[in-house]
Amino acid sequence: MHSLPRYAQCMVRFTVLASGSKGNSTVVTGGRTRILLDAGLSCRELFRRMKLAGEDPETLDAIIVTHEHSDHVSGLAVTARKLGIPVYFTEGTHRAWMRWLTPRRQMTYAQWLEQCRRQAAERQAEADAAQIDPACDPDEADLLAEEAAPEIPADPQADQTDAPTGVPSRKEDPTWLPSVEYFQAGQPFEIGDIAISPFTIPHDAADPVGFVFRAEGVRLASATDLGYIPPNVKAQLQAVDLLLLESNHDLEMLRDGPYPWSVKQRVLSRVGHLSNEAAADFLENSYDGQAAYIILAHLSESNNLPELARVTAERALNGRASLLANRLLLAEQNEPLSPIYF
Ligand SMILES: [Zn+2]
Ligand SMILES: [Zn+2]
Predict the structure, then answer these.
(1) What is the CA(41)–ligand 1 centre distance, in A?
(2) Burial of 77 (0-12, 13-18, 19+ CB in 10 A)
C-alpha cells in the first residue's frame, strides 16, 4: 500500500514558537518547504517547542534571520549545524552576528589576519575527521543583545579567503555555519516553494528586515522590532492573509516602568520598538483589513500586559467595521501558538 510522503500535501502553515525579548522564532511552511524565521531560543528549546506544536525539526529546510539581536539568533549556530541547513542573512546582519561571536579582545589587523590563517590551517587539519556534533548546547550561543560589538579591525573577507569551504570547525570558529546565503532588502527571492520579500525596518541593528512570505497564493507578513512604521513597511503589510505585528509596550507603562531612562529612550526611539498605540494607529488608519489573522507579537514582559495590547488593538479594529473579520491572536513568550493553517 502506498501512502503519501510525509508533508507531501500542499499547505501553508504559520507556527509561532516564541515571541518577546527572551526569544523569537516561527516556523513558516509553504508547499514542501519549511523555514525557521529567527532562532532566538536554544536549539534544545526550539526543538521541544516545535514538537509541542506538531512541527518536525528534521524537516526544516533553512533558517532566515531578521537581525542580529540575541533574542533572534541565540540558538542559530547550534540549530543550523545540527540540522545541516543554510542560514539566510543580509550581509550586514551576518557580519554583525560574526562580530558578536568573535572573542572580545583588541587585536591589530595583522594579529587578526594571523588568527584567521591559524584557524584556516586548523580547519584543514581536522577536515577528514570533523563531523557535526549532534548535541544541542544551549549555552554555546548565549549572547547578550545589548552588548556593543568588539572593536576588531576585521576584514570580513579575510576569514573566508583562506578557509577551505564546507569544512566544519565548530570548536575554533563559533561563526561557522553549514552554509550562508545572502539576500537584500527590497530584492525578492525564493527558498523552495516559498517566495520571500524582505523589507527594511527601522531598528537599532546593522541591517534589520521584516518579511512577506508567499506560497500557494497565501501571503504572510512579519514585522517586529521596529521603532515606527514607515511608508515602505505600511505598503508591505497590505493584502496579506496573516499579519504578525509588534505590539511591544504600553507607552504609559514604559514611562512609569522599571527601565533606566536610557533604555526607555532607546525603546521609544525611531529605531526601538513599536508601542501598542503605534500598532493600533496603523491598524485603524493605514491597514487594509484583509488579514484573516493578526498576531500581536514581541510583547514586553515589563512594560505591557497581554490584555492591554489586545484591548488597544481591538479598539482600533472595532473602529472600522471592515476589520471585524480579522481574528486577533497574541504571540506568547513561553509557549508556542497552535499552528495556523491556510
Ligand atoms: Zn527582538
Ligand atoms: Zn531587536
Answers:
(1) 12
(2) buried
Question: C-alpha grid cell for residue 196?
Answer: 520571500
Q: How far is the CA of 72 from the centre of ligand 2 (A)?
A: 7
CA distances from 77 to 85, 178, 180, 187, 269 (A): 10, 9, 11, 25, 30
Whose cell is 579591525? That residue is: 153
CA of 188 to the centre of ligand 2 (A): 22
Terminal CA-CA length for the chain = 29
**Ligand with an atom nearest the CA of residue 203:** 2
Which amino acid is residue 284, in one-letter code?
A: E
Q: Ligand 2 centroid vs 129 CA: distance in angstroms? A: 38
Q: Are 324 and 274 spatial neighbours (Cβ–Cβ below 8 Å)? A: no
The model carries a pTM of: 0.80
pLDDT digits 0-9 by tens, 99-125: 988 866 566 777 767 777 777 777 667
Name the nearest CA neighbour of 212 among 181, 238, 182: 238
| Predicted confidence (pLDDT) per residue in 173-182, tens digit | 899 999 999 9
